[in-house]
Each structure stands twice: as C-alpha cells, then as structure tokens.
Amino acid sequence: MLERFKVPESERVYVSAGKMRAATEAVFLAMGLREPDAVLSADVLITNDLRGVETHGVSNMLRSYVAGYRDGSLNPRPSVKVERESDTSAIVNGDGGLGLHVAPLAMRMAMDKARSMGMASANVHNVGHMGGAGYHAMLAAEAGMIGLAMSTSGGVRMLPTFGAKPMLGTNPIAWAAPAGEMPPFLFDIGTTQVAGNKTALAKRVGAKMLPGWIARPDGTPIMEEADLPDEFWILPFGGTREQGSHKGYGFASIIDVMGSTLTGVGPGFVYSGSGFHLSAWNIEAFTDLAQFRSDMDGWLRGLVETRPAPGEERVLYPGLSEAEETELRTREGIPYHSEVIEWFRRMEKELGLSFDFR
C-alpha cells in the first residue's frame, strides 16, 4: 500500500491479530451469524489486515457490514443453494449472505470439481461484498492449485473511458499460485486507478488524490493532485486514454461479463448486487506439482534478484510484500487508526460486548 494511505505514526494503535480476531468474531455473532460463518468472516478481514490490505480489513469493512445487517440488506443466516451444476461448473444463490463466508463455499466447490476434472468454476449471485478477492484465490493456492477470484462490486463507481456516467464497479480480480520455498504468487487488484475503499482511507488519514485517479461529476479527469472532493467518480486503471485507461476499462468489463452476465443476472449496472466468479486449476492435471513449485521458486527468485533501477531499493513480485507484512504484523501487531478503535468502543456499548485491545 502506498505510504500516503498508511496510518500516521501518531494515530497508530497496535492490536494483536488474535485480539482483533476475537473482537471481530464477537461483532459478527452479535449480528446473528452462525458461529462458523462468523469465524470465517473474521478470518477474511484479519488476513487482509495482516497482509497490509487495510482497505478490505476491519477498518473500512466491518462497519459497512454491521450497517448492512442492521438495515436488512444482508442476511445473517443465508440458505445458500446451488441452482445449476455440471461436472465443471456451478451457479450458486447466496441468499443475501455476506460474500466473506459465501465465496469460500463456492471456491471449495470449484476446487472439489477441479480435483477430478482438472479445472472448474463457480459463480455466485444474490450475495454481499466479497471482502477481498485475494483471500479466496489463495484458498486454491494453499491446496496446491491455481486460484482465480473476481467480483462485480455492488456500487457502480467507475467511468468507462471517455464516459461521463459510471457504468462499472471497482471490479477486483485476484490470481494466486503456489510456490515451494518462496512466498506464493498473489496478484490482487481493483480495476480502478485507485481502489474505492482507499478513498475511505484517504478521508481518514487526509491523503490527497494523485492526478488521473478520479474525475469530476461531469466525467472530466482531475489531472492535478487534490483533496478528495465530496462528489467524484473513479477512473479505470490507466486514468486517461493516453495513459492506458482502455486497459482498465477492458479488464473491468471482462469481470462484469464473467461475474454478472455469465451468472444469469445481467450486466452489473442493471444488477445492483455483487456477482462472483471463482475458478480453480488442479496443477496435477497439467504437470507435476513438485516440479511446478520448483519452477515457481526459480521464476520468483529471478524477479526478486532483478537489478533495481536507479533510486529503487529492490524488485518485488505480487504477493511478496503481503507475505513479509504478515510476518511483521504477526510479531508486532496490526497498526489501526485510533478512530477505528473508537468505533469498536462504541460497538462495545451498543452490543453489550467487551474487547481487550491491550
């Protein structure tokens, strides 16, 4: 994550993953979730926080989910159903449940099918926020497979290139592949120039938007560094056509097709909810898994050992910094903004709970 979005030193409150996990599980249980779903949902958020993906950790998302349970837009105890199925595919109705605990069910279904068929996919509709595509793709990598997770997000906030009206969500996508001795490969991005949830972080820490990240309400890209305005749209990654925004627009469009239209619910700007596409490839169906892991190690080491450009410290690969951050935060605790801890203290009183953040 860019330095501008990190919590300022003066506002950091370090909390161990275990203590924040317990508090998060307690909040989910208070919302009416079954215990396994509460535990799984908390694991998604805490895993994101440990990886440094704070946009999809407890800071931004838990309060959003609490609001969804309170206004009835999220179903705390969904009856998840398979509506259509083949040897290599499934369409799943999430019954309004939160994607944090529904998406893993669909990914594991795809993984089970891939074990016998080589590859498989599962799509999900009628479901809440996915909670970070990388978590679900990594389920496959941890099982010795290649995983893909993508989501059409419920909020239509991205402008198409040259457009004045948003027609796409931030539409994240994640690929994960296992290695041997090296941390796994994990490519996890939103297809907008700046992630939607990073705008919430920007408000919290006072970070400015860089040129080409967002647009004015009439669709005009803001091409100077600026404070986050009250009203804005988000540009595809690339920002402007000259900088390659058609590529981000194209990726987001593919995700819309795969996550919404292929699921049978129509385009994302018509279907106001989230739609997921999750795929798994059984590496053993293509090549020897041990050889694959060894080849991945060689490739990843080659990337890390690439000579850095002048002024740069080193070359990373997708997933390396997240693995390093997990080790650091497991030892030292997760740095939360003091405002986030204040929110938890309010939840303590409202829900009659008790949190230990010492």
Detailed description of the structure:
The two termini are 26 Å apart. Helix 1 (17-30) packs antiparallel against helix 2 and helix 4 runs parallel beside helix 5 (133-142). This protein is 40% helix and 17% strand. The strands form three sheets. It has a seven-stranded mixed β-sheet. It has a two-stranded antiparallel sheet with strand order 1-11. Strands 8-9 form a two-stranded antiparallel sheet. The protein has 358 residues and is of the alpha+beta class. The chain is globular.
Q: Total helix count?
A: 10
Largest sheet: spatial strand order: 2-3-4-10-5-6-7
Rounded to the nearest angstrom, the distance between the terminal CA atoms is: 26 Å
Total strands: the figure is 11
Proportion of beta-strand residues: 15-25%
Helix/strand order: EHHHEEHEHEEEHEEHEHHEH
Structural class: alpha+beta
Name a few traits of the molecule.
40% helix, 358 residues, alpha+beta, seven-stranded mixed beta sheet, globular, two-stranded antiparallel ribbon
Short description:
The protein has ten helices and eleven strands.
